[in-house]
Amino acid sequence: VTTESVDRRSTPLLAEFVAAVTGAPDEASATRRAVDWATEALEAEVGVILDGDRALASAGFPRGEVPIAVLAEALAGEREQVDVAGVGACRLVWTRLEMESPIDLVVARAGEDPFSREEIALLRAAARSLTLTLRLLRALAAERSTRDHLQKRQGLLERLSSIQREITRRVPLADVLTLITSSARDLLDVEMATLRMIDPTMPDVMLLAAHDGLPADVATSITRTEVGQGVSGRAVSSDGLVIAERDEVSLGRPSLADQDVAWAMAAPVHEGLRVTGSILVATTRVDHVFGLAEQEVLTAFAEHASLALTDAKRVEHIQRLAFHDELTGLVNRSLFMERLDQALLRARRRRSNLAVLFLDLDRFKTINDSLGHTAGDQLLVTVGQRLRQCLRDEDTAARLGGDEFAILAHCDRAGAIEVAQRVLTAMEPAFTLDGREVFAAASIGIATDRGGRANAERMLRDADTAMYRAKFAAGNGYVIFEPSMHAAALARIDLEADLRGAALREEMRLDYQPIVELSDGTVAGFEALVRWHHRGRGVVSPLDFIPLAEETGQIAELGRWILQTACEQCRRWQQRGPQHRGLAMSVNVSPRQLQDARFVNDVAAALHSSGLDPHDLVLEITEGAVMVDIESATRKLSALRGLGVSLAIDDFGTGHSSLGLLRRLPVDIIKVDKIFVDTIATDPVAAALLETVVQMGVILSLDVVVEGIETADQAAIIARFTGVLGQGYHLGRPMSAAAGDTLLSGSDDAPESLAV
Ligand code: C2E
Ligand code: MG
Ligand code: MG
Q: Which percentage of the chain shows pLDDT scores above 90?
């Protein structure tokens, strides 16, 4: 605090001020104390702290009414005299606080006497002190809110892990539901919480599954409620968070009105993708407003509880079965776990080795969806047979559920790798399902143990975690567990919950990468590449969340949004001028999307509502998406082509596709993968290979786009192949729509180009 020009008399006054203001617990009381002090110290009648046209605190105004307009006008005109209603003509002095927005400390004294220089200096010194105090208080408030946030999140995680623990301990489902409800109540610090689940036999009715803090008679009166009614019911029907105030809550529900609920908030609970119920929290405290933080906590909790619930139901289901899987005749999960327990005990005595392999079929959902459950079952049976052939007598193969299998092998790491390789080889031959040839690879995770140190649950979990790695790597392979993967797996569960509704929260954005005519640099079109701007993690790559969205089925909704947004953007660019009229937009389509019966409709709808000419839309499909069932994929692709859109095979050359296949598929474009480009500048063989691939496309009268062009040398080599389009960092990185505008504006005035 600077006191340079404050005279001796004033110093104790200022000290008193500093003590009063810095001791204030919050901003409101600091400003109140400051204005009281300033008015008194300057022997003034009235004082006020103005933040623009708002009074933060005032003193001495009759009935507390601050003539803000009058004062603001005087300040703006630098007039030192003003008429204050109820006080009369006053002398005015003010000083400005250096905050983000201008805040003025204003004091007015009745009469004509001007303020002395000492008085003005005193006021300025006080203002400086107040500025520092306010800044400190704001910083503290910000820190407190992040600390609260962290604490809440920590609490949330602890609750969830205890729920998860209860589930693995196989406590009855009803107890899990109660635990979820009481956890919600504690987490949000409210008096009441309920969990309502849709009646499996009557989809319009919700049953009270668990409650906490409600008197028994009230609970009885609301055991059955309707979907769409009340806060809980609306959370279900809208599949979103609902907040309601007293009047709405009590409406038509006298029993709850008796509870004097001031605020209630409910979030939907899911099982897989279906909404199956909602969690409601309610408080009688009028001041307990459900702010953003509370909304986030409840949403996050409901999402996680959903995952736990799905899990719990699965566990219950498995318990109901005996020890063998009816379909494949393999051992089931519980017997597998028991055998693993036993094996670990024995390994402890004999200091021997054990390995668990966790196996998950790649694209099982796709097969099941496209060929039907009978074919899916047939596939599982055959996989079971092939697995058995890979094992020695003392080893165990189990079906854990769905398309998940596990193997218990009495061997070390090297032996486990051998088993994994044997399994992968056994999966290679086509499966004949319903007279059709289908390919189904598997992803395998391996966890090993020496001397029985592990515990069974953890070993299986670790193998499962490693399996996910294998799956995300590309599938059809194995990965050995490492401890660092565990944390990553937890993060993945979080990500899965966050993904829901990300597009609606406007966290999804599209970048656009130019596709360029190599001969003259004209932009022929763009490829839309989705980006997730996650609140906490920054930008998440599509490689990390598209597989997740596929797995959870969220891809359908996300895909529709991507299509719509990309088509609209393309149309907007085309409308810049005639030379952009033929600009094309490429949109990536994931395998699961292609399977969706509504996909053709979705494409037609996006074209229709954006007004984009179908010929200007390219759908990029990977080989994997068509390989599963070539016949039905061909039918789907033909239907899409019927709309007039072009089809491209993406990442061409990285999968199993052959020339023969390419001839049969109704596609127009191949996008040659980056791996063909990487070494062409230094390796003539690689360059020749790329040229061959390009030639092949030309012979089949397909358009060719070469991807991943990173250097000028590469571009120059590829430019020699006629009629080839290029894409890559050297030609243009993926960019925002605004950057795309700028790029195109370079050729806005150019003569109409002949670009594709
Ligand atoms: P993709 O379809 O093969 O897209 C090309 C990827 O290569 C993009 O990565 C792009 O940023 C990157 N790339 C382009 N030029 C170069 C280059 O010169 N060097 C290198 N190293 N990379 C280059 P991105 O955006 O990370 O996307 C990865 C994949 O995620 C895409 O591969 C595509 O399969 C998928 N994807 C992206 N957006 C979507 C989408 O909207 N829907 C679906 N279903 N999948 C998407
Ligand atoms: Mg692509
Ligand atoms: Mg590609």
A: 41
